[in-house]
Structure prediction request, 411 residues.
Amino acid sequence: MSSGAGIDIASVARVTALLDRRPEVRGRIYTDAEGRDCDGHPQRWATRWAAKEAVRKLCGAAGVPLPAYRDIEVVIAVGGAPSVRLHGRSSRLHLSLSHEGDLAIAVVTGSAAPATFAEVPAGLRLADRPEDAHKGTFGTVVVVGGAVGFSGAPLMSALAAARGGAGRVRLCVPQAMYTAVAAQTLEVMAHPLPDADGGLAAAALVPLQERHLAGASAVVVGPGLGRAAGTERLVLDLLPQLTAPTVVDADALNIAAAHHLDWRSCDQPVVLTPHPAEMGRLCGLATADVQSRRRRMAIDFATDNGVVVVLKGSDTVVAAPDGRVHVSDVRVVALATGGSGDVLSGLLAAFLAQGLDVFDAAVAAVFVHAEAALGVQDVRGRAGGLPRDLLDELPAAQERTRRVLEERRSP
Prediction:
């Protein structure tokens, strides 16, 4: 969206009189930090009032929904330069404040459209995308999953890996569902494996290792996998013999939990992506116990088992075995639907395939996944968005994030 401008002039005397007459207005208009900064300085109350009105005028002229007054915060840097922050999203706005006598003046310029819908976490990384790259530059993701009646989960995971920038994506599914899956995508290479009881058979291990995993840069195990006896045997045999960084999700987590798998027996870095109930099974605890101490549970499990944990849900926690931890503050109700986690697993594997550190890949995937969901929510609302909508938003969410990171690096 093109840049615009918003200008507002406020009377110091009128703003001061209003706040003295109705003190409750302060809490509706100003943030706590602004209140502390303005206390005892009447002109500051007025300049910040004008700044908030100027931002809303710019947004209105651009056709962007008007932010609440408290979501617009004026921040003064150490050197005295003012800037404007829109809570809940980053922005590309520039602010100038002035006052003379009774008049306070604010001028806001820039784009009313957010650079991203959410604030990009400090330290977040995405892999480079050099112009001379080829498909081999960005790695190969192999997704292992699926059972009769659960074809959507592995397919969405594989498509998310493709939308996440992986150079090549292979999807390995039971023979019984191969035709249905292969017919739904042109970009992902689907492969049939031996099956039994509607799921993958234990005999699938050898062709999986010899034909597909040998060239993998990252692997996803678990979406829609089911709990057939042969499938359980396959998972328990496969995980200790991994040849690439692997995302373990869904039924693969449940199988590992039921058999008390020793995660330190895995030969490659592993990322676990449980929702609270799956985390409870891994730890032998009730879901409510997990939810009551989410951060501590993720950190302890990661440290004790030598894995990266992505504990999904509101305030998703990413914990590494070396003590690094990240808690996402992006809450998106549009993600509260079946299949969203499958998209996350594929996206995470794509970032691993492109060479990111395991913890960095997890943090980046959690953010870009939420950023894409905010894009869906912006268009479709808070209910009714589908995981397939997330897939379509992933490229734009990455590009928004990448541009913010590039701006941060520029002098």
The two ends are 24 Å apart (CA to CA). The longest helix spans residues 358-380. The chain has 15 helices and 16 strands.
